[in-house]
Each structure stands twice: as structure tokens, then as C-alpha cells.
Amino acid sequence: MAAGHSPMEQFAIKPLIPIEIGGVDLSFTNASLWMLLAVAAGTLLLTLGVKRDGIVPGRTQSIVELMYDFIERQTVGAVMGESGKKFFPFIFSLFIFIFFTNFLGLIPYSFTVTSHIIVTFAMALSVFVLVLAVGFWTHGLHFFSLFVPSGAPAWIMPLLVPIEIISFLSRPISLSVRLAANMLAGHTMLKVFAGFVVTMLSAGGILSVLSIAPLIAGVLVTALEVLVAAIQAWVFALLTCIYLNEAVHLHDH
Amino acid sequence: MAGEAANAFQVADVAPEPHGDPAAEPLVTEELHTSTEHAGDAHGAKPGLPQLDTTTFASQLFWLLISFAILYFVISRVAAPKIGGVIADRANRIKGDLDTAAQAKRDSEAAMAGYDKALADARAKALKASDQMRNAVQSEINAKNDAAAKQLAADTAKAEARIGEMRKAAMARVGDVARETAADVVTKLTGESAGTSDLAAAVADALKGLRTA
After folding, report:
1. Residues of chain A contacting B76 with CB distance shorter than 8 Å
2. Cα A221 to chain centroid, rounded
3. Which of A27, A80, B90, B111 has the fewest CB atoms nearer than 10 Å to its CB?
4. What is the mean pLDDT of residues A40-52?
5. B82 vs A42: CB contact, 8 Å cut-off?
6. Cα–Cα distance between A241 and A173 in angstroms, integer?
7. Parent domain of A98
8. Does B202 fall in a domain?
9. Residue A248 CB partners (closer than 8 Å, separation 6+)
10. Whole-number mean pLDDT of chain B?
């Protein structure tokens, strides 16, 4: 349908139900649709997939418990220990949201919510704001000591402190760009290979036969993207944990 | 799917396009071709990366807030407690089962120890009873033996005493007999009677020799 178009077309935001409130365009778009579908998928899996008396877990429940254990114990627990308990629902929500938006985006003709920098940036910024809030709430102005590396000689501080501040401030950018760029690049690559297949097939002759090459590449890239979708969701959750842990414990961890 | 929706949007937007008009054909194709830009146009933005179209930001942020809030609510209120509860239940159940098994093991070990102790006690008691019995029998035998030995010794002593007396009496009479016999022999051989004192001395000598022999 859209084979002849630019590989970027898949990222286009298309309004499904135009909504405008107070002069601001809040239309229900394909992005909104896939956000809600991701939430629905996550909700269905996490609630209906688990039985209260599931002492011996079934297949679905095993998957759910695996995800839960992976984030709860092996990520939040491993990085933050006891102090991570109250942040777990937030971090797990981030993981599930990114995981499902990434995965649903792999379905042909769907839409990848996380390929839009504004979405990932909003999530990264909320993590950043949470880190600041937790940091100042726990340590007050002492939180600024985060920018003073312990154990470094005093004369090097004028150099180190600005570096620490810049790296701290660039966190929301790196966090959001990492995810969005991964999704953007992967999906663009998929589209480019798929486009090659169509172009070569329609060219006829030897090119039609050779079109098997980009097809195989496309399959391999799809497999890679499945991996990337899961890894990037986890990386986002893990970095959130690390940042929050720093805010809670400063350097003394 | 999404493309069709956009097309529908597109068509609705540029609706009064007479169909079957050959002159309109290229225009429609072009419309389709630039649907992205046009969708953007509908938002009043310029072409380029859809990610950089700032006019869509408000809508994306708004729906992100709504959908993430729903997910957070579901996870923090329903899913996480439920899954955590199931996992904790299982851990408790396994721990409980292990504890029960350990308790059963301890119980069986205690029962085993009790059995061993009862067995040892019974054995000791039996041994003691048999020892007592043996001792009682032994002492009875000993007592009877002693009594019999005493009786025997007494009898023997009595008999020996009597023998001694008889021997003494006999020995006492041996001198008299010897003297009479010697007197008779001397009288018969010599025809005259020997002096009693000589006879007595000779007999006493002979007897002394006899006794020492």
C-alpha cells in the first residue's frame, strides 16, 4: 500500500478523531491508538494472565512472572535494594509501556509510538524530574554534592564539577534519544529492505531472483529488532533505576 | 490500515474531486504521494521528519499522559500486588512444605531414637533380670555347697578324732600285748621268765624303732 513511499512515512502522525480543546490540537491519532493498544495489551497480560491461586504457573503466567521478577528483583532490587520498592510500580510501568509499544510497532502497518522523540523525551524528562524531586526531598541542598566526585583532588574540581553537571543534565536527552533513535533506525532499516524486495521483484529478470537477499536481510533485521525492542525497554528501566538510586543514596552506595 | 485512514482523511479533506475525470487522475496520485505532508498540512506543519513536526506534540503528550496514567494505575493498584502476591504465596507455600518435611524428618528421627532407647532399656532390663537370677541361683548353690562342705568337714573331723582315739587306744595296748607276747616267747624259749623292766625297755625300744620306721 505504501511500498513506494519514503521509509519515513511509517512514522507519520495521522489524526483519526480530530479533537481540539482551547485552540490546542489534541486529536486522537494513530499514535494515540497504539499507545492505548499497548496499554491494553500490557493490562490484559498482567491481569488476566495471572491467577490468584496459580501456585503452579501456566505458560502465560510464567511469562508474566518472568517479566515481573526480571524488573522487580533483578533490576530494581539489584540496583536499588530495599529503597527501590516504592519506585517499582513506576519503573515496571515504564518497562511494560516501552516493551509493548516497541513490540506492537514491529507489526506491519502498525505505528511505533516510541520512535517519536517527543514521547520518549516526555518519559525521560519525567524520570529526570522524579530524580530531582527524590534527590532534594531526601538530601535537601546536600543533593548538590552529587556533582562533586568523592576522592578526587581539589584542584581538579573546577574541571570535574562542570562535567558532572553537564552529564547529569544531558541524561534526559541521552535516555530519550537512545530509545527513539533505536526504534527509528530499526524500523527505517526494515522498511528500506522491504522496499528493496518490492522494487527488485517488480524490476523482473535476475533482480527478481536476487530479491531474496534483501528479504533474508529483512527477516534477520526483524529478529534483531525483536531483541532491540526488549533490550531498549529494559535499558530504559535500568537507567531509571540507576539515576533514582543515585538520588536516594548519592555517592555512598 | 493507517494509510487508508489517512487517505480517508485526505479524501474527506479534498472531497469535491469529480471521479472518472481523466484530468483529475494525476492530481489524485500526487495527493496520495504526498499524503504525509498533507496530513501534516492538515495540522498546519511543514514536510520533513514526522518526529520534528511540533504541531503533533501536544496531542502525543496528551495521549501519552492518559495511556501511561491508565497503565500506572493498573500496575500499581492491580497487577503488581497480584503478581507479587502470587509469587510470595508460592514462596511461602514452598517454605511451608519444606518446613513440614523437616519437621516430619525430626519427628521420625525422634521416634527412631525412642525406639532405640526402648530397645536398649528392654535389653538392659532383661540382662539385669538374668544376672539377678543367675546370682540368686549361684548364691544358693554356694550356700548349699558350703553347708555340705561344713557338714562333711565336721563328719570327717569326728571320724578322724575317733580313728585317732582308736589308734591311740590300740597303740597303748600294743605295748601290753608286745610285753605279754615277749614274756611268753622268752618263757617258752628260755624256760624262765624275763625281768619285767628289761622286757618293758626292749619293747619300748622296738616300738620306738617301729614308730620311727
Report:
1. 89-90, 93
2. 18
3. B111
4. 88
5. no
6. 17
7. 9-249
8. yes
9. A80, A83, A134, A135, A138
10. 78
Domains in chain A, number:
1
Tell me, what amino acid is at B51? Q
User: Does a structural domain hold residue A25?
Assistant: yes
Name the grid cell of A59: 505458560
Per-residue pLDDT at B21: 44
Q: Contact B67/A65, CB-based, under 8 Å?
A: no
Examine the pLDDT at A5 and tell me if it is beyond 70.
no
Domain membership flag for residue A1 = no
Are A36 and B63 inside 8 Å of each other by CB? yes
- Inspect the interface and report whether the beta carbons of A55 and B9 lie closer than 8 Å: no
Cβ–Cβ gap B83/A46 under 8 Å:
yes
Q: Considering the domain boundaries, does residue B99 fall inside one?
A: no
**Segment B126-133 long-range contacts (CB within 8 Å, at least 24 positions apart):** none
Whether residue B95 lies within 8 A of chain A, CB to CB, comes out as no
- DSSP count for chain B of H helices, then E strands: 6, 0
Residue A201: partners with Cβ closer than 8 Å, 6 or more residues away: A207, A208, A211
- Is residue A196 in some structural domain? yes
Q: Is residue A2 part of a domain?
A: no
* A55 contacts on B by Cβ (under 8 Å): 89-90, 93
Bridge partners (DSSP) listed for residue A17? A28
Q: How far is A214 from chain B (nearest CA, A)?
A: 24
Would residue B195 count as lying in a domain?
A: yes
Question: What mean pLDDT comes out for the span B156-170?
Answer: 90
Domain containing B33: what range?
Answer: 1-52
Determine the average pLDDT of the residues in A98-110: 91
Cα A34 from Cα A30, distance rounded (Å): 6
- pTM, to two decimals: 0.69
The residue of A1, A13, A65 whose CB has the most chain B CBs within 10 angstroms, and thus the best one to mutate to test that interface, is: A13
Q: What is the pLDDT of residues A187-219, one digit of tens each?
A: 888 888 988 888 888 888 888 888 888 899 999
> CA distances (Å), B208 to each of B171, B204, B211, B213, in order?
12, 6, 5, 8
Q: Which of B127, B108, B64 is nearest to A13 (CA)?
A: B64
- Read off the C-alpha cell for A53: 491461586
